[in-house]
Amino acid sequence: MSALDEIRAARIGKLNDEGVEEAYPQSCARTHTLADLDQKFSSLHTKKVEVRAVGRVRTIRGHGGSIFFDFDDGTGAMQAYIQKHLVGEETFNLFENVVDIGDFLEVNGVPFFTKNREKTISVFSWRMLAKSIRPLPEKWHGLQDAEERFRQRPLDLLMNPVVRARFEARSKLLRSLRAFFEKEGFQEVETPMLQPIPGGALARPFITHHNALDADFYLRVAPELYLKRLLVGGLPRVFEIGKNFRNEGIDALHNPEFTELEAYAAFEDAQGFMTLIERLFEKATKEVTGKHIILFNGNEIVIKNGFRRMSFEEALARYALLPNFFEQSRDALVVAAKQMGVLIDKNASHGKIGDEIFRKVARPHLIPPTFITHHPLDISPLAKESKEKEGRLACPAGRAERFQLIIGGVELVNGYSELNDPLEQRERFEAQEKLRAGGEEEVTRLDENYLEALEYGMPPAAGLGIGVDRLVQLLTDTHNIKEVILFPTLRPR
Prior knowledge:
- The protein is of the alpha+beta class.
- The protein has two domains: 3-136, CATH 2.40.50.140; 155-307 and 368-484, BirA Bifunctional Protein, domain 2 (2-Layer Sandwich).
- Helix content is 35%, strand content 25%.
- Helix 11 packs across helix 13 and helix 14 packs antiparallel against helix 15.
């Protein structure tokens, strides 16, 4: 028998030996949460108000005929004190013989201050709410291995206040994002996660089979095409916060299941959405962290209005020493990528090669908030082609009216002016299908239902997607996406 098995057997044996019949009662009652009790403690103590509290035992300290123990209920923690002469020998001995660290208890008593002015509950009676038959890990010697922490997230949360604080920050962020978009007049909606055609992003999908319909479906890679159908349907401003699924590798910034916020607004464009993003990030950063200056990966970063802007081509020239990207031949780009140590798929398009070089070589240099604009059109099949004028000259062909927001070397937002010409969109889809036939797996599929919706007329619009998990990473100075997802994807044991 292992040491763990012996502990489990001993704890179960305690219940049997002491004749405890209800170790997991149906219900409990409390008059105050521990946070509420802490706030009102002085008044309750003065008036000698009897209180009933519940929580998990975290420490036990015996002193002859008395026992101090600390317990918490998720809202706060408090000390309790049980004395043999107050509760009686039988009740006291039962506590002493049965209660272990990790047990959930209900205690009834009155608040008082110890000689050291510690807030304490003097216990009149107690009962077991849930017996812990497996011991909690020691605070400093328990879950140290990161992989084990992810697999044992309940214990990770229980034993590590830093982890709990990180997920509290995540909740604050989600509330802030929702409040911002609602205030801006966006309607929150829900779109399908099971889709007959994967679309809305250049990504490899997960496939599943629906038995009743005898048809294959895909877990969505993005909600984009459904959200834009709603613009056709007369909903002018919509957003969705939900899960996307992409059958790709796992690293510090990628998890196959992740949370994204997507928003679309009629009669807007990419330029207007960049301004909206500046306001959103400034507001969310202040609400989550309490300030506009954050620390990420050793860098102090100011998150305030007025983010810098740089074209895709300019970024490659400045940081990858690759000038005139759009004039470079594909063969020349392949050579350049190889020299930089960037792996390129043999079927990668001109724009895809440039994007790989940008991500591996240029993007890590973009620490202050930076909008990268005018991406290659061939990797932006749902975006309008840029007609923006630079001085007296129109933007050269092949550039999309698109932007990405990079902070701390991490892509956080992707957005563009939406292509709403159904004929051109069909041509773009057909070009993507040719790439897929040539072996390129990360393409946008031709979606006849979406094209039909476009033919009814979609207003000029802008859209964006925000990687919520990555934004949590940024605001909590966390460098592995698994740390900000409660249950990240792990290799099965």
